[in-house]
Amino acid sequence: MKSKTYISNRLLNAVLLTGIFAVSASGISYAGESTGSESKKIYDAGTVVVTAMRMESPDLDSPASTIVITGKELEERGENSLFEAISRIPGVTAVSYGTGGEDYIGHPLRMNVRGIDKGTLVMLNGSPINMQGQNSALSAIPVSAVERIEIVRGANSVLYGAEAMGGVINVITKKPGKTETTVGAEIGNKEKNYFVRTGDGKFSFQYKKEYRRGVDPFNHFSKKGRNYQFATKESSVKDGIFLDYAFNDKLVLHYIYNEIDSGFTIWQIPTPTAYSERSPETRYRQTRNQHDANLIYDDADREFKVSLNYLNDKMDYTKHAKANAGVWKDTKKLVRGEGYALDIQKGWWVGGRSHLIAGTTWQREKYLSRDTTEKSLRRDQYALFLSYSIDFDDRFAMTIGAREHFVKKNVYEKAQNVFLPQFQLNYKLNLTSSLYANVGKSFVMPSITTPSSSSSWANLRPQTGWTYEAGYKHITSTEGFRATFFHMDIKDKFEWTKENLLIPGGDPNVSVLVNRSKFRNTGLELEYTKKLGKYWHLRYSASISKPESKDEGGNWAQDTSRFQTGTDLTYEKDCFLANASLFYMGNREAPYYRSDGEYTSKKGVDHRLGNVLQFNMNFRYQMTDRDVLTLGIYNILDRKNPVNKYEYPEMPRNFRLGYSHTF
Fold this sequence. Notes:
The chain is 7% helix and 55% strand. The chain has 663 residues and is mainly β. The strands form four sheets. It has a 22-stranded antiparallel β-barrel. A five-stranded mixed sheet has the order 3-8-9-6-7. A two-stranded antiparallel sheet has the order 1-2.
């Protein structure tokens, strides 16, 4: 079948060059290919994903680097939060300032894919839930509600807009199922959790309450005047509600409520090791409330989908600090953010071999900070996008995408108009293997919460760049192998500096965001899964890369970890399941502080962040059809694995013993 497609000379050259590569590879025969129902069974073994192309597509047909974590795998590993599960995916760097993905006042949870900070878009059932450049809402989604998590690495701004520069994390929840109610509890040495879950064919509901103990000390000491300081994390309490309601087979409402009460204490010490002589300097206590409502209309037969999303994030905290003459003073602050998003898409099949997706998005962010002054900001964005795919034959397919993205002018920033193209190729070597290539441009807007002065904020440009990748996938009913080679080239990378370095007479204590450096990353990502006989299952993955940023002097410096690897081994027979997982992150970047407590930016680097080695085990026993007993042991090696540049450690060795009963 012929199709009229008009493209530029450059694009035509790219198609021809890639076509030569595909033809040269076509000599690989369909070795071992079967016919009829047997071949259909092998082909269907591949996972169906929706995030990579904005439509349901077999993984082998998706020209992107994809990782899928199923709800069953989350259960096997005994994961208590999605943050913990995703943070152990090679290629993903999790930045947290509290245990289990909690925030620390102005230091929010972030997920970074391929090393680019604030360049990861987190979605719930295809709707964005990033708030103010943060991924905090991720910790609000209960693990038990998850059908699967799709992680698509690489530039995805054409399909999903800003913040999808490094990749997209799409949490897809379970549909309401059978009528039943489950109650359960987990008791451990560091935390305890209680939950109730109920539902029928139209709705599902869960309430969970979590208690976590504090950690002392909680970060690396730092120099302050003649003394030193460090932090301890206080105990925290979390309440979470999750609701799904299906009005009919096309219209579904998702709602999340998350409330966290937590705190930190900053202590002064005369020497780096004199913890017994510490004295309190500042205490922070915060309450954070998050609401996420997501209404989705999805008519699969007509390929028409509308998503309406509302986010509300409020943080109310008190700072109890020593003022002059040792007098304690309380400062209260309220920070509130709201987000609205409307996404409409429509798909058409053209002639049987071509498919077009077109749509529009609109987003509004609002931010309010109130202490002694009041600052209110608003940002409006809207875009048009399309993605056109054509199957030249049963093996070779091409996808061309484009997005025109507009950011309206406001009091702090100029109007922005960004055009984003994307070009993808997919070539099936046989029924179980494929090659793909993916080239795309992406961008990130600065977080709406970061303006410090109008004169510097107004000159900011979006962070933009290109990602190039090529990959191989092999998927059967018993094993899978994926390999991706990528290169990122980003300009106008956001960096923080002091106002006095930019503006004559500026305040040296005020931090200002500027476009300063470049970012690049080249790497290889691998994943292998295998069913080892009837009862064993193995998953191994690794990421080797070279993330670098250019500093003010024009020198390239390491940005994040260069090597990550993880292994999961599961044994399941009859009513018993055992899982062991090992994760390693090595060759890491420099921290914020030197060993003597001084800033590395001031005195230079004298050490690197410690490597992360985490070993966990989880056991589950199905006592009856209605009763389940679980035991999870985490950080078995009891390592002080640093999770961010402040060298905050993860939770020490801990365990959770759980029981649940279903009525």
